[in-house]
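Quick one before lunch.
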Amino acid sequence: MKAPDIIRKKRDGQKLSREEISEFITGLTRREIPDYQATALLMAIYFRGLSARETADLTEAMMRSGRTLSFPELAEPKVDKHSTGGVGDKTSLVVAPAAAAAGLRVPMISGRGLGHTGGTLDKLESIPGFNTRLSLEEFRRVLSVCGLALMGQTEDLVPADRLLYALRDVTATVESLPLISASIMSKKLAEGLDGLTLDVKTGSGAFMKWREDSEALARRMVEIGMARGLRVEALITGMDQPLGNTVGNSLEVIECLETMKGRGPADLNELCRELTASMLIVGGLEASRERARGRYDAVIQSGQALERFQRVIEQQGGDAHVVEDDRLLPRAVHQESLVAWEDGFLTALEAEAVGRAAMGLGAGRERMDSAIDPAVGLVFEKKVGDPVSAGERICVLHWNDAAMLVRARATLRSAIVIRPEPPGADPLILARVPDDEKGATPA
Ligand code: URA
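Model of the uracil complex:
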């Protein structure tokens, strides 16, 4: 079938066959289908959607568009964790070493931050010398030496996603449940995993602002993984306020080091604990969630998670002394406090605006090719629910550029709400998909 016929079929709300989807993705990857036809199909999918079967077929076709990984040399279960992205979302830096120390192998392929959300690669690259551009051979070597390896997408892994994502980004077709599901799961299925834990964010700082949408996305991704024999569990977690106390690349690395030293903020530690426990369950190393949580506590308390992190920094070319001395990380030249303007309770720290404030300081990028400043960002001393008195510090802005500070300060101010009454408290972990206690078992 010709490309215009496939586009027309979807435009008119019909279902595409597996062959049609595969033909289209192959044509796109070979650059035989031009961008204007690909974007027309993306827009048709945006409006008409894809069934579960079509989404699975799209995922499969995208996964097969390039090289896929496998690690037959590793006897241990291979498990990754993927987050749909948020503000201050730094769990990968704790969870990957903790899961490796607890007995899993974690081949983690991560992304960069875009817009108000941060990315794992940017955080790692704030460690002097840390190389996230590994060849697949180096990745394999680091994984066997450290039990974890952390890198970015390569040219030959799921090239169809890179082409499609670049088009979606500039044609307002990112926010589509089937397209997001296929994009994420094609990359995860190409990693040669035995298990996968998904952290699907919901709230103002997330891709999906509403819990029902986040749950639908989680269900679709879990179905795709299970249909291919992968054990998958998704946690639906709150992203109405930033996770932890810091937003900004090197500041977030410092917070992760503190968490691995047992001194992290409670919300960050809780989420890292739940995600690591989920990875141990989908990886088949633990059947009981309580025991899996205990294993996380043990590798944190014993310093084994921190030791794995130090080892991976060393193996990926970074300065591993940052683990003992975080003053070796980039630091902003200036600091400025933002204080409470009245007595009351901190009722909102609206995550999207906080993310935009951090981006305004230079911590994030507006476009994929913009430069970032690893040193700048925000450190919160109060979180939602805390009482505050007028003049008391809520946040410290770490800044390098005065013009950027002016805008960031105003954006940050707009993110903060103080009310006389304490707000209700929402749990951080809102739901699990599937919602049984053991995690998903493949069909
Ligand atoms: N992350 C991805 O990798 N793909 C999407 O489509 C959205 C978020």
